[in-house]
Amino acid sequence: MVIKPVPDKDLRSSDLTSEAQFWSRREWIATVGGGAIGAAFLAKPLAAVGRDQADDLKLTPYDSVTGYNNYYEFGTGKDEPKENAGTLRTKPWQITVEGEVAKTGTFDLDVFLKGLPVVERTYRHRCVEGWSMVVPWMGVPLGEVIKRLGPTTKAKYVELITLVDPKQMPGQRSDVLPWPYTEALRMDEAMHPLALLTTGVYGKPLPNQNGAPIRLTVPWKYGFKGGKSLVKIRFRETQPKTTWNIAAPEEYGFYANVNPMVDHPRWSQATERRVGEFFKRKTLPFNGYADQVASLYSGMDLKRNY
Amino acid sequence: MTGAQWVTRVLKPVTWVACLGPAVWLLAATWVTLHGPTGPLDWDLGVDPVKTLQHTTGLSALVMLLVTLTVTPFRRLTGWNPIIKVRRLLGLFAFFYALSHLLIYAVFDQELSLTKIAADIVKHPWVLVGFAAFLILLTLALTSPAAAVRKLGGKRWQSLHRLIYAAGLLGVLHFLWLVKKDESEPLTYGAVFLVLMAVRLIPRRSRRAGELKEGLGLKSRA
């Protein structure tokens, strides 16, 4: 099977910093940084302002990507998944396919993915909490998987269901969220070439705390859409209920597209902080993938469909 | 050691060291983050440095506010009066950490733009609640010197400084509102706050009983 590569529209010329802008920033930094306020502490973060904004796709270090995770199945602290996820056994692993689809059944993961193209994708990753990363993922386009499974004409949504096993997942002994953690996409979203079933990061197999052995990555949506350690894919005619939407419907919608114009009820979504950086940067519509995905939502009220 | 010596030689220095602890740690960790070696030792501010700064200063402000609120019940319970000598210091440290918390937010979240800060406060109740708590602590800090007590008069000063209860409530609310889902930590602080408030509702019967005994010349000389 030949896969047409997705054109890389991530970097537009408008994203780049002109030389004049660059030097005017340095000048400002020199003025402020030269001030009396604890230069040793402030000079470096201030010097980073200009650079931070320019390095839009600078990779977040591996240790940060794998040591700062929201994976409530292993605890609600961001360092807890790395500490606790060792109990998860990812081999053998099976995926069940059911619903409005031709090839139903339970498959070993190897069989499920066999023959599909593994692609490398460096995506921005924007958490609904206001922080972000840039992560080099590896995986199989979800659309390719779906094509092979052959959904029926009734299939309007894809529901992705994750593992429930309190023995392996200590966080599930608390009812902080309704388990299993479930996410879903509209069929056209799921078929979009940017949507990825992710199996690796930084050229290595996915660590447990990042959702091994297989997870969803939808770069234009907030991170919580990306269910981790998937065990079931169900094709449905009606819109499935999704975990965070059940937990707090006013705060987390079904679509969860990254949108700087629509604030979370409690905090602004206009800006975000790349982990490791001191100052915030502007959040981009659809997390910077508007050129590729905005047409999926044309005519929709994105304030209402948050 | 006399009671007064105990206060100046032990109680006050211990309070200073304990209260400066978080600030010293944050400064050291900031230095390590910016200039220090990276390695397995977790001496830096972690993956999201600004979040660590914000969370630690905010939490320190809340803890010190709650400790300040513990002084009076502690004194009543134990009858150990010298503790009152560090109440102002504790309260000022609560203000110091709240101020640091606000400054870190103003610099790193809002790039010192007053318009952005004002818009954020108006738009988000969570920020508004935190800002209100800060304004209360600011007022109390400004009226904390002995001269201010004299100028206001003891009664008025005392009723003004009862606003610390409101600051405590707003502080807990501010913390509770920030959390995405797992509210156990802010609720723990909320429970401590409620206990400290509830203790204040218990009538001071023991003291009255003591006064009565004294009036009748019955107080023992233990």
Features:
heterodimer, A: 306 residues, alpha+beta, seven-stranded mixed sheet, B: 222 residues, mainly alpha, 10 helices
Explain the overall architecture.
- The complex is a heterodimer of chains A (306) and B (222).
- Chain A is of the alpha+beta class and 306 residues long.
- Chain A has helices spanning 19-33, 39-54, 62-65, 80-84, 109-113, 142-149, 187-191, 243-247, 290-293; strands at residues 94-99, 105-108, 119-126, 131-141, 157-162, 182-186, 196-201, 204-205, 215-217, 230-236, 271-274, 281-282.
- In chain A, the strands form 2 sheets. In chain A, strands 3, 4, 7, 8, 9, 11 and 12 form a 7-stranded mixed beta sheet that branches.
- In chain A, a hairpin with a 2-residue loop joins strand 7 and strand 8 (204-205).
- In chain A, helix 1 (19-33) runs antiparallel to helix 2.
- The two termini of chain A are 36 Å apart.
- The relative contact order of chain A is 0.16.
- Chain B is an all-alpha fold and 222 residues long.
- Chain B has 10 helices and no strands.
- In chain B, helix 2 packs antiparallel against helix 3 and helix 2 (49-78) runs parallel beside helix 9.
- Chain B is globular.
- Chain A binds chain B through residues 40-41, 44-45, 63-64, 67-68, 72, 76, 78, 128-129, 131, 176-177, 247-248, 263, 266-268, 271, 273, 275-276, 278-280, and chain B through 27, 30-31, 34-35, 46-51, 108-109, 111, 120, 123-127, 177-178, 180-182.
What is the strand content of chain B?
A: under 5%
- Major pleated sheet of chain B: none
Please tally the β strands of chain B and state the result.
0
Q: Fraction of residues of chain A in helices?
A: 10-25%
Task: Give the uncertain stretches of chain B in residue-range form.
Answer: 212-222
**Distance between the ends of chain B:** 19 Å
Largest sheet geometry of chain A: 7 strands, mixed
Q: What is the overall shape of chain A?
A: globular
List the helices and strands and how they pair.
The complex is a heterodimer of chains A (306) and B (222).
Chain A: H1 19-33, H2 39-54, H3 62-65, H4 80-84, E1 94-99, E2 105-108, H5 109-113, E3 119-126, E4 131-141, H6 142-149, E5 157-162, E6 182-186, H7 187-191, E7 196-201, E8 204-205, E9 215-217, E10 230-236, H8 243-247, E11 271-274, E12 281-282, H9 290-293
Parallel strand pairs in A: 1-10, 4-11
Antiparallel strand pairs in A: 1-2, 3-4, 4-7, 5-6, 5-10, 7-8, 7-9, 11-12
Helix pairs in contact in A: 1-2
Chain B: H1 3-35, H2 49-78, H3 87-109, H4 114-123, H5 125-142, H6 146-152, H7 154-161, H8 163-178, H9 184-201, H10 205-215
Helix pairs in contact in B: 1-2, 1-3, 2-3, 2-8, 2-9, 3-5, 4-5, 5-8, 6-7, 8-9
